[in-house]
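Shape matters. As here.
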Amino acid sequence: MDNNVYQVYEDEIQALEEEIKLLTEKYEEIQQESTSFSDEEILRSIKSFQRQMQGESKGRESPSDLKAQLESLEADLSFLTKLTGFQFTSHSKKTVERTRERTVQKHKLSGNCYSLSFQLEFQLLEMQSKEKVSAVVTDLSIVMESRQDSDVSKFVSSIEEQGNLVTFFRSLSTYAEWFEHRRRTFLHFK
C-alpha cells in the first residue's frame, strides 16, 4: 500500500512539473510578443507618460518642451500620412526563434492606403555575421480588399512570391492614389 501512495504522489509531482513547464513557456512567449494597440490605448499611454514626466521633470526638460516635442512628432506623422497615404492601424510582432546568429520574427500589419485596406503577414529572418546584419522577408501573405481586379491580384501574387515589401508599399501608394481619384471622379458623375 505504501508503494501506491508514493506512486500517487510521484504522479502528482510529475503533473505539477509539466504544468510549471508549460506555464513557463507560455510566460516567455508572452514576454517576447509585442501586442497591438488601438489609437485610444496609445493616446492614454501618451497622456500617462506626460503626467509621469511632469512629476519627474524636475531638473530635466520642462513639460512645455515635451509637449512641443510631442506636437512636432504628431505633425511629422500627419505629414507622412498625407504624403504617402498610409495609415497603419495595428501591428504585432512575435519572436519565433532566437539564437546568437539568427532571429525569426512573425509580423502582422494592417492599415489603409487612401481608401484601400490591406493586411500583411510575414516572417522576418535576421542573420548576423561578424561584419553585418542581413534581413530577409519570408512567408509573405497579403490580403487586400480590391483583389477582384485581376491586375491587382496578379501583382499581389508576384509580390508574395518575391517577398519584396518595398515594391509593395511603393506600388500600393501609387495605385491607391489613382484608385481614389477614379472613385471620386465616378462619384462626381453619378
Q: What stands out?
A: The chain has two domains: 1-53, 85-189. The chain is about 55% helix and 25% strand. The beta strands are 86-98, 102-113, 116-128, 133-144.
